Amino acid sequence: MFWQELTTGIYPWDIHDEGIETILDNLQNLSGNNAAYMLALMHHEKRPLHANYYPHNPVRKRYIAEDSRCYFTIHEESYRHSRIKPLGSDREFLQGTDWLELFVNGLRRRGMKTGAEISHTPLDSERGLREFSDCLQRDVYGNTPKFGEYDIMTNQQLCWNSPDARDYVCAIAADLASHYDLDMIQTCSLPFNPGRLDYHSLLGVTLGGCFCKNCEREARRQGLDWDAIVRTVRGLADMVSQANIDAREDLLCLRQGDSSHTSFLIEYPELYQWLCFRARSFTAYLDQLCQTIHAANPRTEFRLNTCWKEGEMYGINLREAGKVVDSIRMMDYSEQTGDRDRVYNKDKWLMNVRRMVGEDKTIIAGIAPRHLATPELIKLGIRRVALAGADGLSFGFYDGACYENLRAIHEGMEEMGITLRK
Ligand SMILES: [Zn+2]
C-alpha cells in the first residue's frame, strides 16, 4: 500500500544541539521519513515529555521550553491587524537564527516535505493573565479553567469565539504560509476546556469552557437561550464539584445509579445545546484559519491535530470540522505506555475518525516511538493503523526516540509493504 508521508516534529533546540544535517540523516536513514515539521510556536513543556532524559541529544540531558514562543522571524507587518503580537525567544542560544528557514532549507535540499506547527497554547500565560484576560476561556463561575488536575495552561486558553484570539492565530498562520515554503501547517491548539472528566465522563464537562462575554454574545446572536444554558450547566457543575451539601447529596444519588449519557442529554437539553454550540464555534474558527492559510499560500495544506480521543468533550465535531480542514493528524501515542492491548486496539479511534470524516479525507495516524515503546509495539501499532486505512504516519517525537525505535518504524512499514509516495 501507499502512504503519502512519514513525518515527525522537530524542535528548534534539537536543530541547535544535533544539527539539521544529523537530524535529517537519521530521519532518512533510520526511520525513512519523507517529511518533517518544525514546532514554529511551542508551549511551556519539558522535553523529552515522558522519559527523564534525551536518548541522543549530544548537548543536554533535558530541556524546558519557554512559554509559547515563536522560533521563526516574526514579520511585524503580518500582525498589523492583530491586537495580540507573538513573542520570540528570550534565550540567547535560540536568538538571532530563523530556525524555520534553516529547517525548511535543509529539508528541501533533500526533496523532503515541510511543515510547521502552532502548538497547544499560542498565548503565554503571563500576558494572558495581565493584558488579554478578555480573550481567555471562562468556566461557568467566571474563572479561567484549569486543564485537568494541573495548574498548567490555566491563564492562556484562548476562547475561539474571541475575535482577537482568532485574529492572532490567523496572523501567525498567515505569516508562516506567506514567508516560508511550507507544504503543511498543523495546529493542535487546545479547543474548549473539557472540565473534569475524571469526576464524571459526561457531566464533568460542565466545569470546562466557555462562558466568556464573547461566547454569550455569539450564542445570543444564534438565538440560544443563554440564561437557561448557564442556569442548567451551573447546576450540574455545582453537583459534579460538590459545591454545597445539597449538591453533594445529588452527586451521591447520581453515582448510585447508572443512567446513560443519552439519558442526561435528553434530561438537560441546555447541556446538549451548549455542547453543540462549542463545536460549531470551533469549526467556524478552523474554517477561518484554513481560509487564511489558503489565501496566503494556496499550496499550503491545513491539518488539524486531533489531540484527544474524547474530542466531543473538547468541542470538536469531526463530521463538521472535517469539511473545513485539508487533513487530520491523530495524536494516538499508545506505544509509549508499553501496554500491548492499547496498541492492539489503536484502530478503534482511527475508525471513529474515518467514519466521521469520510473515505476521501487524508488521515495521518499517530505513533509514539518514545518512553516505554519497544520495536515490537511500534511494529504492531503500524500494522493496526495500516490495516485500518491510514493515509500516512506522524510520530511523536524524534527527540525522545532511541535509534532502535526509529529503525523499527522503517522495518514495520517495510514488513507491511508500505511505500511512501514521491
Ligand atoms: Zn468564550
What's the structural blueprint in terms of helices and strands?
Blueprint: E1 2-3, E2 5-10, H1 12-18, H2 20-31, E3 35-42, E4 46-47, E5 63-64, E6 69-70, H3 99-109, E7 113-118, H4 125-130, H5 163-179, E8 184-187, H6 213-221, H7 226-240, H8 245-256, H9 261-267, H10 269-296, E9 301-306, H11 318-324, E10 327-330, H12 340-344, H13 346-357, E11 362-367, H14 375-387, E12 392-395, H15 403-415, E13 419-420
Parallel strand pairs: 1-13, 2-3, 2-12, 3-7, 7-8, 8-9, 9-10, 10-11, 11-12
Antiparallel strand pairs: 3-6, 4-5
The structure holds zinc ion.
TL;DR of this structure?
This protein has 422 residues and is α/β, with parallel strands linked by helices. The chain is built from 15 helices and 13 strands.
Count of DSSP H/I helices: 15
- Assigned CATH class: Alpha Beta
The strand line-up of the biggest sheet is 2-3-7-8-9-10-11-12
- The mean pLDDT is 97
Q: Provide the structure class.
A: alpha/beta
Strand content: 5-15%
Helix share bin: 40-55%
Tally of separate domains: 1
Largest sheet: 8 strands, parallel, barrel
Q: Per CATH, which architecture? A: Alpha-Beta Barrel
Spatial gap, N to C terminus: 13 Å
